[in-house]
């Protein structure tokens, strides 16, 4: 049967076909663009997105930590070991429980990367500051110093604005324009002597008002004080301590083996975060108060044993012209050796004075420090803000001169120890 005449194509069908072809062309183009950019992702900031350090291969094997939740048991074990040997034991958790458990600061806030703080200041970034910025500082009275020497220890003002940074790094310690350092500015001078010398540091000052007041009222200025960034009004404590003749250390919280059960506080420097984030935490702590000549680790048995995470932190402390005291809460600490390798003012703890907080045990520890000082020329002891510690320091100091040994500020010890 012959075909009839072809029916005309309705106009709406042509429009539909044209629309479908357009959709296919646009969709295909979008798919091609997606594949192209997926194959070549945008570059990331390595300082922010670097993987956490692999501590299992980079660090020595550490002694296992206790999981029974008993800080008292850990402290007692550490105390027994220290009473027998006079040195930090090889159980980092026990050492730290013995040295700081009595004065733990408030618990840390939840860990977060939300804060967008400036990364570490380097020599290059500071050198690149506009000349106008330097002129502004000079006009504000925080510029250059005459000559090449820092002002005297007791010179006003305190803290000295010439040793405080500005801009993104406002409130951080810095080297003055003439090159002198906060260490030189705030170190208490000591008379030259041929005698063996001992430095004593009391840490965690400011966490408890009554004992803090007693320390400032009764202990001699030769005792160096480590002020906690978690003290109430830490700048007030620093100002009072400086006026009483004490040189000061900033306590920097570092991760212990049993973190977070044993928590140094907010802004703890940790092994498994980027170096940029640790520097931001360090800067936050550094801004707590001004006028310190150095830093000391608070806890840190895990952090101080890992050279890869220590390096950028110690470099930043050195860049800012500060001393570092390695509290040696673990025998695995590399902090003192590394700081010494950088050429920065360094000291290491030889004994925890009040690991066993009894008069006889503290007196025995002072006898150990005297023996070390006679053999090596210098010794360092660290104590907590305890009434019995204050009492025994006063008794010991009264008879120290008869032993032919001098009590000196910690800065006098810097660089004079053989760090093994």
Structural overview:
The chain has a domain at 72-105 and 183-413: Glycoside hydrolase/deacetylase (TIM Barrel, Alpha-Beta Barrel), CATH 3.20.20. 44% of the residues are buried. It is of the alpha/beta class. Strands 1, 2, 3, 4, 5, 6, 7, 8 and 9 form a nine-stranded parallel sheet that branches. The chain has 15 helices and nine strands.
Instruction: Give the distance, in angstroms, between the N- and C-terminal Cα atoms.
Output: 110 Å
**Under the CATH scheme, which class of the domain at 72-105 and 183-413?**
Alpha Beta
Radius of gyration equals 29 Å
Helix content: 25-40%
Count of β-strands: 9
Short description:
39% of the residues lie in helices and 10% in strands.
Keywords:
15 helices; TIM Barrel; nine-stranded parallel beta sheet; 420 residues; 39% helix; globular; alpha/beta
Element layout with pairings:
Blueprint: H1 11-38, H2 46-49, H3 55-58, H4 71-85, H5 92-100, H6 123-127, H7 131-139, H8 182-186, E1 197-205, H9 209-218, E2 224-227, H10 234-243, E3 248-254, H11 275-286, E4 294-299, H12 307-319, E5 323-326, H13 335-341, E6 346-348, E7 351-352, H14 359-376, E8 378-383, H15 387-400, E9 406-407
Helix pairs in contact: 4-5, 11-12, 14-15
């Amino acid at each position: 049967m012959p075909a009839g005449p072809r029916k005309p194509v309705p106009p709406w069908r042509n429009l539909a076909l044209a629309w479908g072809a357009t959709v296919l062309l646009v969709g295909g183009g979008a798919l091609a663009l997606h594949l192209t950019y997926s194959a070549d992702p945008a570059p990331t900031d390595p300082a922010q997105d670097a993987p956490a350090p692999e501590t299992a291969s980079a660090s020595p094997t550490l002694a296992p930590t206790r999981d029974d939740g008993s800080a008292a048991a850990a402290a007692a074990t550490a105390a027994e070991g220290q009473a027998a040997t006079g040195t930090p034991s090889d159980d980092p958790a026990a050492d730290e429980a013995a040295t700081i458990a009595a004065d733990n600061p408030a618990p840390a806030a939840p860990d977060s990367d939300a804060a967008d703080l400036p990364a570490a200041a380097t020599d290059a970034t500071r050198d690149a500051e506009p000349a106008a910025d330097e002129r502004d500082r000079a006009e504000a009275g925080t510029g250059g110093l005459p000559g090449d020497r820092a002002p005297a220890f007791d010179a006003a003002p305190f803290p000295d604005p010439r040793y405080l940074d500005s801009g993104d790094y406002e409130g951080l310690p810095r080297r003055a324009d003439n090159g002198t350092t906060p260490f030189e500015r705030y170190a208490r001078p000591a008379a030259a002597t041929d005698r063996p010398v001992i430095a004593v540091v009391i840490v965690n000052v400011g966490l408890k008002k009554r004992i803090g007041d007693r320390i400032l009222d009764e202990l001699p200025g030769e005792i160096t004080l480590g002020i906690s960034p978690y003290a109430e009004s830490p700048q007030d404590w620093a100002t009072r301590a400086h006026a009483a003749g004490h040189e000061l250390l900033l306590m920097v919280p570092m991760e212990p083996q049993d973190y977070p059960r044993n928590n140094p506080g907010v802004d703890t420097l940790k092994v498994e975060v980027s170096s940029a984030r640790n520097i931001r935490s360090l800067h936050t702590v550094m801004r707590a108060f001004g006028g310190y000549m150095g830093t000391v680790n608070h806890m840190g048995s895990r952090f101080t044993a890992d050279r890869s995470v220590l390096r950028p932190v110690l470099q930043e402390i050195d860049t800012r012209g500060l001393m570092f005291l390695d509290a040696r809460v673990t025998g695995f600490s590399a902090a003192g050796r590394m700081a010494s390798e950088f050429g920065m003012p360094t000291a290491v703890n030889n004994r925890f004075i009040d690991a066993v907080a009894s008069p006889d045990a503290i007196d025995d520890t002072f006898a150990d420090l005297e023996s070390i000082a006679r053999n090596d020329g210098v010794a360092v002891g660290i104590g907590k803000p305890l009434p019995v510690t204050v009492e025994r320091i006063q008794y010991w100091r009264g008879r120290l001169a008869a032993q032919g040994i001098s009590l000196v500020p910690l800065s006098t010890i810097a660089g004079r120890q053989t760090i093994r």
